UniProtKB/TrEMBL annotation:
<feature type="region of interest" description="Disordered">
    <location>
        <begin position="246"/>
        <end position="270"/>
    </location>
</feature>
<feature type="transmembrane region" description="Helical">
    <location>
        <begin position="42"/>
        <end position="62"/>
    </location>
</feature>
<feature type="transmembrane region" description="Helical">
    <location>
        <begin position="350"/>
        <end position="370"/>
    </location>
</feature>
<feature type="transmembrane region" description="Helical">
    <location>
        <begin position="282"/>
        <end position="303"/>
    </location>
</feature>
<dbReference type="GO" id="GO:0051453">
    <property type="term" value="P:regulation of intracellular pH"/>
</dbReference>
<dbReference type="InterPro" id="IPR036259">
    <property type="entry name" value="MFS_trans_sf"/>
</dbReference>
<dbReference type="GO" id="GO:0007040">
    <property type="term" value="P:lysosome organization"/>
</dbReference>
<keyword id="KW-0472">Membrane</keyword>
<dbReference type="GO" id="GO:0005765">
    <property type="term" value="C:lysosomal membrane"/>
</dbReference>
<feature type="region of interest" description="Disordered">
    <location>
        <begin position="1"/>
        <end position="31"/>
    </location>
</feature>
<feature type="compositionally biased region" description="Low complexity">
    <location>
        <begin position="246"/>
        <end position="259"/>
    </location>
</feature>
<dbReference type="Pfam" id="PF02487">
    <property type="entry name" value="CLN3"/>
</dbReference>
<keyword id="KW-0458">Lysosome</keyword>
<dbReference type="GO" id="GO:0012505">
    <property type="term" value="C:endomembrane system"/>
</dbReference>
<keyword id="KW-0812">Transmembrane</keyword>
<protein>
    <recommendedName>
        <fullName>Battenin</fullName>
    </recommendedName>
</protein>
<feature type="transmembrane region" description="Helical">
    <location>
        <begin position="204"/>
        <end position="227"/>
    </location>
</feature>
Amino acid sequence: MDRNVTPTQLIQMSTEPLRSDGSELTPLQSNQEQGRSYGNLVAYWILGLCNNFGYVVMLSAAHDILSQNFHDNVEEESSSDSVSNTTRECNPTSTGAILLADILPSLAIKILAPFFPFLVHVRMLLVVLLAAVGFLLVALSTREWIAVLGVVCTSLGSGLGEVTLLSYSSIFDKDVISTWSSGTGAAGILGAGSYAGLTSVGLSAANSLLVMLIVPVIMAAVFWLLLRAPGSRTCTWKSIINRNDSSQVNSEQSPSSVPAPKLESSPVESPKPLTVVEKIKLIPPLFVFMIPLGLVYLFEYFINQGLFELIYFPDIWLNLHEQYRWLQVTYQIGVFLSRSSVNLFVVRKLWILAVLQFLNVIFFTFEAVYLFLPSIWIVFAAVLWEGLLGGAAYVNTFYRISTEVPFEKREFSMGITSLSDAIGIGLAGAIALPVHNILCQLPKPY
């Protein structure tokens, strides 16, 4: 047996692609492994899209769900025609109510799920079923509480899907975080855009939701047919020697007779599961990620669900309902662009994003109170900027966790951090309700 293998050769050879039995991969097999990696990146993009799709649609439809013609394919009479010139155009109930129904169940799931066994296939089955039931209940509802129950089901599915798939991502290449984030951003554009588009061409809000039942079907197909978890690999002394010079290996000698047995390793084992106490102790160090992310989401969802519906430009090509829908679409475009940017640049000072988003709150609050802007295009530009900040906070938070937190703690860290945005959104909905009522009592400034 050749004993003249240098440490440098050993390191170089041990980094070559291997089969699970420790033998070297052929170029074709290496390409297959690379193809699997690309497939997983695509799969996580689609899963992010499908997971957030229903959540986005419910928020885009919030103004319609709270109206009395949800099942009709006509727009409500413009508020400007039915109220006095001194009264603001307001829905009786703030869209913050739908926001609460769309986020509080998700928040509960995100808090509890990391502490339960990680049965990924069972969880994903529940995610798909809840998404489908949510669309059906809202679309077929005859009473408001049934529609709200459908929103709750959508929220449960989205929350469980996010905490599960983010935790599951810890065993894949770190770049799946980027494609997942990009997919969730695309859900914003496609969710808000498809809803606005379908209702614009004459479909009722209810029928538009029935069309979207295809989304949970796609999610199931991608998770169980396209996504492939990486397999374990074995690196043995025998395979290293064989790759160096198989002709010099004595077939009568076994690998166990070779000194330095530590060079022979067994398949990589999963890290020991964290105990409940260890998980609780891990939470405070994560505040550096959780607090900025939660604040950014608090500020932006207060704007979206507390102020958007109070910003109205009369006598333009869009009526009140359409203005709300297309502001949501513009926001989601910003989210998508920034969530797809982490491979270009990384924002490490997350608190800066929270400060900038708070400045947006001040700007949009002044506009909602005084209606001082001369053109809706200025609002569209500001909303795009708001979305860019929100998407950047999300993707950079989870990218930093995927690269800075130790592997054995990463799965739990991903899951528990995901609840910080839900807390921020829940607080935004709670604040939006009284603020909506206060602003609606103010007279028009013109």
